[in-house]
Amino acid sequence: MASRLRSLLRALTAAAVLTGALCARGGHAATVPNLYLVSVTPDATAPDQRSAAIKAAMARVLIHVTGDRNAPFDPALQVMLSDAGKYLNSYGSDRQGQPQVGFSATQVDQALAALQKPVWGPERPLTVLWIAVDDGNGGRALLGDNDTPQLGLEPAPPGMTARLAALRKELLAVADERGLPVRLPLLDLEDLNAVTFADVWGGFEDRVAAASRRYRADAILIGRVRPGLIGNQIEWLLVVGAERQLLEGLGLRDGLDAAGDRFAAQFATLGGGGAAAITVLNVRSSADYGRVVSYLEQQSALQSVDVDSFDNGVLNLRVTARGDAGVIGRILALGGVLKPAAGDRPGGALVFEIARSGAGP
C-alpha cells in the first residue's frame, strides 16, 4: 500500500509540477543571475594580470555569495582568494573588453560551507528605490529608471539630468557589487499620480508604499539627496513591512549597504544539508500542488524535496535544507507562493499555506 501511494504521488508530482510551472504567478523576490560571474577592472601594474583579475573577481564573488561586504578581508577566506584559480569555471572578456571571470557555484558553496561561512542563494528580496534629489539651487527631481523627463513636470534644471544619471550609475554599481536586486520607479503617469517629490522628500511612507505595490517589492528604500560640504549628503529610510530603519547624513552607498547587510543576515544559510519537514495547508487543486512542489524544487537552499503525503488539502514534504529552520522559513516565505501559517505541527514541521494575494508591500 505504501509503495502504491508513493508511486501515485510521484505521478501526480510529475504532472502537477508542469501545471504549476505554467500557472505560477511571479513572487515578490528576485532571482539574481550570475552571482558567480563578474567583470573586473584590469590592474595594469600587476605582473600577472590574469591571476590578478581572477583574484579580484573572487573577492567580488565572496561579497556576492556570503553577503558580507568585508568578506575579502576575512582571514578565514584568504585561502579562497589565494587559490582562486582552483574554482575557475571560465575566463574571457565582456563587451567593454574587461576581464570576465566565472567560478564554479558548487565548488565555491562547498568551500564556504567547509569554512563555516554563510551562503546567500540567488533568491533575494527586491528593493524599490525612491530617491528625491535637491541640487541646492532650487532644482528638484525624483530619480527614475531612465533619463526620460518625468511626465507632467517642468523640464529638469540645467545639470540635473547629468546629476541624476551619475547617481543612478553609482547606485546600480553598488547594488551589483552587493548582489542586491533593486528597482527604480518608471516615473510614468501611474507613478506620478500616486506619489510626488514632496511625498518622497517629506517621508510620507503610506503614499510611497502605495506607489510601490506595482513593483511587487519586498522592501522600500527612501532617500533624500542634497549637496553636503563634501559630495552628497543623504538621509535614508529602509522600510521592510512594519519595520523602519533611519540612516541620517550618510553617503550614497550606505542605504544599499544597510539593506544588503540586513537581508544577508536574514537569508544567508550556514552549514551543510539537514533534514526538515514542511507542511503546506489549503492545497485545493492539482494546480496548487504543482505550484508548491515546483516552487520548492527551484529553491537553492533546498537540496532535495520529497512528498510524504497529500490528503484533504494538506501536503506534507521532507526536504534536505541548507541552514536552520528559521532561515529556511524566511526564504520560503519570500517568493510570494507560501506564507507562514499559524500554529505548530507534530515533529516541528515548518507550516505554510498558499499565498493567494498578489499584493506587494
Could you describe the 3D structure shown?
The chain has 361 residues and is α+β, with helices and mostly antiparallel strands. It has 3 domains: 2-30 and 269-354, Alpha-Beta Plaits (2-Layer Sandwich), CATH 3.30.70; 34-114, no CATH class; 123-266, 3-Layer(aba) Sandwich (Rossmann fold). Helices cover 36% and strands 26% of the residues. The chain is built from 11 helices and 16 strands. The strands form 4 sheets. Strands 6, 7, 8, 9, 10 and 11 form a 6-stranded mixed sheet that branches. A 5-stranded mixed sheet has the order 13-14-12-16-15. β9 and β10 form a beta hairpin. α1 packs across α10 (286-297). The protein is flat. The N and C termini lie far apart (46 Å). Mean pLDDT is 86; it is low at 1-27.
Short description:
By secondary structure, this protein is α+β, with helices and mostly antiparallel strands.
